[in-house]
Design brief:
By secondary structure, the chain is an alpha/beta fold. It is globular. The mean pLDDT is 94.
């Protein structure tokens, strides 16, 4: 059974968007690490906004490494209240109860299920206990303003590992942490 992994680029000052392409580093040893994670994945779990953004760009992409071919070929499961099937780009809608559907997908796949982005869908995965890991690719840049993870809503996480790369990127891997009782010091 695979793990559900939420993965997103984030600046040192906590910005995830709207356009990581303006500030994120997409080269060096961190990219090899990401490719290894992609190879360990069986499918993507995507919210509607991330799906639409990726589906508008990736289907026509190619590269010499096989990264684009892998991204384009694996199944995508999309959570949406507004999209209707059939979806393009090897995608299908997540139907029914989110927790039951994601649990079923995790049982069906031996490899991991990767969820890019860190908005409403990621928040639901984390707060419903569906995300096994949350990966923040911390970029060595201060951006100043933009979108925050989980749309600024709170989530308590517990660090499980860190990896520093030659580019200055640091990968922080987290799990959800138990909620603190009211009045308890953190």
């Amino acid at each position: 059974m695979g793990k559900a992994i939420v993965s997103t680029h984030i600046t040192i000052d906590g910005i995830i968007g709207p356009s990581p392409a303006d500030w994120a580093i997409f080269e060096g040893e961190s990219e090899r690490y990401k490719f290894d994670q992609l190879l360990a994945a069986d499918a993507f779990l995507l919210g509607r906004k991330v799906y639409e953004g990726l589906a508008s760009a990736w289907p026509g992409m190619t590269d010499d490494t096989g990264f684009a071919e892998r991204v384009n070929s694996i199944p995508k499961y999309v959570a949406s209240r507004t999209l209707e099937e059939p979806l393009e780009w090897n995608a299908s809608l997540i139907k029914g109860d989110l927790a039951e559907s994601v649990a079923d997908l995790k049982r069906q796949h031996r490899g991991n299920l990767i969820s890019f982005g860190c908005g409403e869908f990621a928040y639901e995965l984390v707060t419903q206990g569906l995300a096994d890991e949350i990966h923040f690719w911390v970029q060595p840049v201060v951006w100043g303003s933009g979108h925050r993870p989980f749309h600024g809503r709170r989530a308590r996480l517990r660090l499980i590992s860190t990896t520093a790369f030659d580019s200055g990127i640091t990968l922080g891997c987290y799990r959800t942490a138990p909620a603190q009782p009211p009045g308890t010091a953190t």
